[in-house]
Every structure is written in structure tokens, then in C-alpha cells.
Amino acid sequence: QAQLVESGGGSVQAGGSLRLSCRPSGYTERLYCMGWFRQTPGKAPEGAASIHTRLGHRWFADSVKDRFTISYDSANNTMYLQMNDLKSEDTAVYFCAAETGFACRLTRVHEYGYRGQGTQVTVSS
Predict the structure, then answer these.
(1) Average of pLDDT values for 24-46?
(2) Among the four 35, 57, 90, 100, which has the fewest Cβ within 10 Å?
(3) Can you tell me the distance from the alpha carbon of 35 to that of 81, in angstroms, rounded to the nearest whole number?
(4) Rounded CA gap, 119 and 87, in Å?
(5) Nearest to 46 by CA among 64, 34, 33, 32
(6) Cα dihedral 39, 4, 33, 53 sign
């Protein structure tokens, strides 16, 4: 069964760092766009960052620019989200998401067709 396997969530104090990982498993098609969106109770999902795994193009939400970086390791078929200088407002469940079309839109990560189970990130002030 195809799935996106996430890891790396947890709790950290404000100013700290976390790294999330997402590894696709069981997919027969290439996932051209991969990224993360986050959601808190009662709010709409918010795209955080995404990457085109062939072109290397990246997108970041304004709220995370200059603090988060995203990368894709083609050798291990794993995507990473490095989150630095975390703030309390970054607290959310983070979902890995992926799309198969080459022309996938990086800004629409919260609408991608495939998504993981989610991992909790909690930042305490």
C-alpha cells in the first residue's frame, strides 16, 4: 500500500529546531511535488513549504521564510523540512503531501492528492 512515512515531530522551546522527514513508500509513479502543510484545530490547512523533486524549485509560505528549509534526497527518496527559530505559532500538526503531475503547483501543497498521517509539532514559549 502506498504511503508517505513521516517522522521527526515533537516538542521544542521557542527558538529551537526540528527536522521532519517524509519518505514515500509503495508508489509506482514519480512524486514530482512534495511538501508540507500544517493545520491547527478550527483553522484551514496552511501550506508551509514544497519542492519540485525534478526541477529543484522551492516555495515557502511568508510565515516560514528565512526559518524553514526544504530539501529532497533523491538517493534515499526522502524529503526533509528543517525548521529553525521555531515560534509558538508554528505549533500544528504537520502533514507531508505529494503530487504526481510534473506541472504540479508548489503553492497548492495543501491540496495535493497524497498525504501522510501527520506529525505533531509543539513549540512552547
Answers:
(1) 96
(2) 57
(3) 8
(4) 17
(5) 64
(6) positive
CA distance 123 to 16: 8
Cβ 27 vs Cβ 2: under 8 Å: yes
Residue 109 is placed in which grid cell? 501543497
Cell of 46: 496552511
Helices (H) and strands (E) in the chain, counts: 0, 11
Question: Is the Cα dihedral 33, 60, 117, 56 positive or negative?
Answer: positive
Amino acid at residue number 110: H
Cell numbers at residue 2, please?
502506498
pLDDT of 85-115, one tens digit each?
Answer: 999 999 999 999 999 999 999 999 999 999 9
